[in-house]
Please model this.
Amino acid sequence: MVRKKLRYWLVLTAVMAMVLAYAGHRNLRQRFQDYLKNKGEIQAKLRECEALEQRIQASRERVTSLGSDPLEIEAEIRRNKNLVREGEKIYRIQTVSEDPASQDDPEDAGR
Model:
């Protein structure tokens, strides 16, 4: 009975040693970590793809509505072409650049 137990433990230890050696030789731990990382990246890209599909659908709906509403057609053309109706006043707000090279030198302004 003792010999059977000893033989069982020796075989089990030998099998475990072979499994560990194989896993180390094939670099299975790193491969599994890479798999998990890639799986997360794939899920992120799928979410991004779904968001883009929703934007495409919204754009298609907008195109459909533009084709049927004359006021929307006119407004979109005026926005894209920067057109103004006669008698209309346009107010444009421009931001000041933070880049000192693009700003005028105050000393040159007085000359």
The chain has four helices and no strands. Residues 2-85 form one domain.
